[in-house]
Amino acid sequence: MRSCPMNPAFEPMLTRAATDRYILLNKIDLADPNAIKCHVEVMEHYAKIALPDSQTWVFPVSLSDRSFLRKLIKDLKHPLKYSKMTLMIAGMPNVGKSTLINSLRNLGNGKGKAATTGGQPGVTRTVSGTPIKIIDDPTRIYLLDTPGIMDPQIRDPVQSFNVALTGGIRDHLAGMESLAEYLVFALRVRQRE
């Protein structure tokens, strides 16, 4: 998508919280390699504007390559930095939030799946009532799974098609025929570039 990656309705809530955050750009194995660096820079730029008093780290990741997750788990196990903490995973629908939690849980304490996953958006419908323990020793780190968060009023039709094509909303909500026509159009434009 060629638009601001931050959610304009969600950012003010984060600003009030003024907390440090990791932004993981998931599924980079599916992204245009030339665009990844640009997206990281844009996210870092908007994070500095939205959260000037907080630290933000932006990482392009693919959950199929667990090397970054191993580094993250190693950092979270540092007892002088963290003793007990509950983290929230938030993001657009169908970007792999629950899969990320399950991967971190598996790497952190060797336990299996705790968050339900699926190929369609909307599998997670509420914030998990019980925090999911991902690290047991020497620190205690928990994660809350959340449903996908997005601006309910996508005003730009191109953006709504892009969100539908990437699995952020159910296909039929954008109109299957219109979605197919847009996909053919977008592929032709990209082919010319």
From TrEMBL:
GO BP field: mitochondrial translation
Question: Which Pfam family, giving just one, matches this sequence?
Answer: MMR_HSR1
Superkingdom is Eukaryota
The molecular function terms of the Gene Ontology recorded here are:
GTP binding; GTPase activity
Coiled-coil regions listed: none
Q: What region holds the G domain? A: 87-151
State if Nucleotide-binding is listed as a keyword.
Answer: yes
Gene3D superfamilies to which the protein is assigned, alphabetical: P-loop containing nucleotide triphosphate hydrolases (3.40.50.300)
Q: Which UniProt keywords apply?
A: GTP-binding, Nucleotide-binding
Q: Can you cite an annotated GO cellular component?
A: mitochondrion
Its name, as the record gives it, is G domain-containing protein
